[in-house]
Write a structure and sequence with these properties.
The chain has 352 residues and is of the alpha/beta class. It has 14 helices and 14 strands.
Length: 352
């Protein structure tokens, strides 16, 4: 058999799909992707795309594998927890065993405005496997700035969303979600839980959109916002095309002002000397509803609040993390001196 046949044989069933064919598969093998986040959505995305033959995938994640990840993060197992492995490295090891013909580049890093452009500079597509809107708005800024397509996805509880964004052709993320929700207004996987099937379905929709784009079938992409609820058995497609540019007022795709990349929005951290604590704050203040946030957090720890601040002690882990949250969204997280860890805890429990 020819070398070409050997290389393509594993994808034979995929190539028999008429829209893919050999030409589409060759394009996949030559394509490059940055995956931002390798948790629930990210592991399904990485697994699917590596098996499909995407030639290069850069996996960027800041976190380590924990026991609570195993319920839905399909590339990890108990040995990864025992070995205290970073998610990006653990995923890369599994993926190389699945398909040695693709290049997997793990990057253990916290995605922020200082590194996201470099992480996405040399790829054809950006995929959202993150768990917070700060990263998504950064992706959106970079994608619009550089003209690269990206695929948004999110899943909490039994609900999920996905949308494909092609700069210049479709609305960008800020056309549809003009601003991030205030901290505490939206549930997270830690506070609202998440069902594994929700994640798998949303990530599978993201993955097929990626395959369309990378194989030269962009005309087939879904140009609407997909909204599902696996518990309530609902599936909606929301028409977002009329929102494109928001009549010239979208700061990102219409005015080309990249506020998240420029640092006008997002979180910033300060390590508090001698206190084993980190302050996490937003560059623009957000009004916190303490009553709503307390209701959200009560299943995860001990909560008390008054009109001045909210106190939250995390009960579910052996680590003694204590949160003091202020009305403007600022929080002091006691129990760590690591800014990246504090930001991750803030996103996980307080919100995006």
């Amino acid at each position: 058999m020819s070398a070409s046949f050997d290389r393509l044989e594993r994808y034979s069933r995929q190539m028999r799909f008429p829209a893919m064919g050999k030409a589409g598969q060759e394009k996949l093998l030559a394509s490059r992707v940055t995956l931002c986040g390798c948790g629930a959505l990210g592991t399904v995305l990485a697994n699917t795309l590596v098996r499909a033959g995407v030639g290069f995938i850069r996996i960027v994640d800041r976190d380590f594998v924990e026991p609570s990840n195993l319920q839905r993060q399909v590339l990890f197992d108990e040995s990864d927890v025992a070995n205290n492995l970073p998610k990006a490295e653990a995923a890369a090891t599994k993926l190389r065993q699945i398909n040695s013909g693709v290049v997997v580049e793990p990057v253990v890093a916290d995605i922020d405005r200082t590194n996201i452009e470099d992480l996405c500079r040399d790829v054809d597509l950006i995929l959202d496997g993150s768990d917070n809107f700060e990263v998504r708005y950064l992706i959106n800024d970079v994608a619009v700035k550089t003209g690269k397509p990206w695929v948004y996805g999110g899943a909490v509880g039994s609900q999920g969303m996905s949308m494909t964004i092609i700069p210049g052709e479709t609305p960008c993320l800020r056309c549809v979600f003009e601003a991030a929700a205030n901290p505490g207004d939206v549930g997270t996987c830690e506070t609202a839980g998440v069902l594994g099937p929700t994640v798998s379905i949303v990530a599978s929709f993201q993955a097929v959109e990626a395959l369309k784009l990378l194989s030269g079938n962009a005309a087939a992409i879904n140009r609407e916002l997909l909204v599902i609820d696996v518990w309530e058995n609902t599936h909606r497609r929301v028409k977002v095309a009329p929102l494109k540019g928001r009549k010239g007022e979208c700061p990102c795709c219409a005015k080309r002002i990249f506020e998240w990349l420029d640092g006008a929005h997002g979180t910033q951290t300060t390590t508090l000397c001698g206190r084993n604590a980190v302050q996490v704050s937003h560059r623009t203040a957000s009004a916190i509803d303490f009553e709503q946030l307390a209701t959200t957090l009560k299943g995860s720890g001990t909560v008390s609040f008054n009109k001045f601040l909210l106190k939250f002690r995390l009960d579910e882990t052996g680590d003694p993390y204590e949160f003091t949250v202020f009305p403007d969204g600022r929080a002091i997280i006691k129990g760590t001196s690591e800014p990246d860890k504090a930001r991750a805890l803030y996103a996980r429990y307080v919100g995006h």
